[in-house]
Amino acid sequence: MSESGTGGSGRGRAPRQGRTSGGGPSGGSGGSRSGSQRDAQGRERNRGPKRNFTENAPSQRTRRADPARLVAFEVLRAVASEDAYANLVLPARIRHHGLDKRDAGFATELSYGALRGQGTYDAVLARCVDRPLDQLDPAILDALRIGAHQLLAMRVPAHAALDQTVGLARAVIGAGPSALINAVLRKVSAHTLDEWLELLLSDEQDETRVASVRYAHPEWIVRALRQSLVAHGRPVTEINDLLEADNAAPVVNLVALPGLGSLDEALEGGATAGELVEGSALSSGGDLGRLASVREGSTRVQDVGSQLVARAMAAVDLTLADPEKPAAQSAGQSGEKWLDLCAGPGGKAALLGALARQQGATLLANEPAPHRAKLVRQALAAVPHEVWHVRTGDGRDVGTEMAETFDRVLVDVPCSGLGALRRRPESRWRRTPKDLADLGPLQRELLKSALDAVRPGGVVAYVTCSPHPAETTAVVTDALRKRDDLELLDAGAALDKVSLTGHLEAGHELTAQLWPHVHRTDAMFLALIHKKP
């Protein structure tokens, strides 16, 4: 859970302190009350001579919802009640409420931080509420999580976090629940996050449980990621670093489509050149839609891990894998045909389309869902139309309908998304171990279709945004076991070839795995499978 800058009403950078005198949520002075203790009606108040009204006096309480906190509350409600995705809901709510850049940043950190830290905050809240959390109204619980994140992980003064969160609850939930929220958050504010973790975990002996509470991951995911580290040749002692990296607010990654886009405007606006891959940049965020190249689609938001795996597939030298292939064709000058089998929503397809254009190849982007196929067309719009075509259909049918047609096939299969938890904060609380079992057959069928669709001498890039061996090495091993015309190429070397560092240390037994805590990318897996000529 990361700290954030602050902004907007009641969100100063002052250190935490006790109650301040006076009225507003920012602790402004309410004026001197020394001298006579008579009120406006002349009645004598039976209180000590130095008593000041506090911000929590009934007449002083905030009775409205601060717009930035209201956005965060609406995002959490949509995620919980509609199975919405925070990254899709948040921009729309920010626009709806007209937040400026500062308040939009606050709302973003509050939304994502409360979602990421949900497990930790719920453990704290369970100590402060007199009933099981699942017996609370879900809206009340979301408000409590928003308050807890401000109190425990953001540079928001405690009095402002309490006053503004209670005001939010009073405005959108009701006066009765706001009293409960006020009482619970006062208990939360009695300790820092480190103090709460000490109270919660001092007697806990189970390392998985400790990591689960401390780093806000379900226990099954902690175990799954430990297994994943070992499966890909990394020490299990890196688990805490990996979990902590999942909780860091990710930097926005940009890619300029090769030969089409430019990063000049982004770099002039404060972005920094990427250190891992050519044509990439890192941005602190803000309104990227202000950039002309982003509006045109020639510069796109895309994780560096996704950029690397797409470039690695496009750069494989097929003359080395297939000595009978002419060098000109390997360089892409003899009409290679490429396939993105699971193209939606189109990020990798756009990059592949630009690379295909440079290499004289063409790209077929396949997507089964019509609405996502529309997104793929939009993503590819910046690439000349003669380079690409979008097919709407089941990827499992392509291998039969277009057998041995393509030189290069990318199959980025649907997966658990365990490698993108930092970008999709709600995913960790939605996914279950059952998802791994349910997705396995589909992943194998799609890989089989890709292998049937690639021509002899061609290459298939099997990609997942998950490091779990059930979705990565196990799927690839099963495919290789069933056929004798396949072999693995060195995926780690392929990634090194297209990286600026030239030494990513991502390879293990010919497959490759990127990591948030090592490479600062999503945990993308890559296997390059060559069909023997």
**Main sheet record:** 9 strands, mixed
Query: Can you tell me the overall shape?
Result: globular
Indicate how many domains the architecture comprises: 3
Can you give the mean pLDDT?
Answer: 88
The CATH superfamily of the largest domain is identified as Vaccinia Virus protein VP39
Number of helices: 24
Compute the number of strand runs. 13
- Percent of residues in beta strands: 5-15%
CATH topology of the largest domain: Rossmann fold
Question: Which structural category fits the helices and strands?
Answer: alpha/beta
Low-confidence stretches: 2-60
Name of the CATH architecture of the largest domain: 3-Layer(aba) Sandwich
> Cα-atom Rg, whole angstroms?
27 Å
Q: In the CATH hierarchy, what is the class of the largest domain?
A: Alpha Beta
What is the distance, rounded to the nearest whole angstrom, between the alpha carbons of the first and last residues? Answer: 51 Å
Helix content percent band: 40-55%
Question: Which secondary structure elements does this structure contain, and how are they paired or packed?
Answer:
Blueprint: H1 67-82, H2 86-97, H3 101-116, H4 118-128, H5 138-153, H6 158-172, H7 175-188, H8 193-201, H9 207-215, H10 219-231, H11 239-246, E1 252-256, H12 264-268, E2 272-273, E3 280-283, H13 292-296, E4 299-301, H14 304-315, H15 318-321, H16 327-330, E5 337-340, H17 347-359, E6 362-367, H18 370-380, E7 388-392, H19 398-401, E8 406-412, H20 427-430, H21 433-453, E9 454-464, H22 473-482, E10 486-489, H23 491-498, E11 507-508, E12 511-513, H24 516-519, E13 525-531
Parallel strand pairs: 5-6, 5-8, 6-7, 8-9
Antiparallel strand pairs: 1-3, 1-4, 2-3, 9-13, 10-13, 11-12, 12-13
Helix pairs in contact: 1-2, 1-3, 1-5, 3-5, 4-5, 5-6, 5-7, 6-7, 9-10, 14-17, 14-23, 21-22
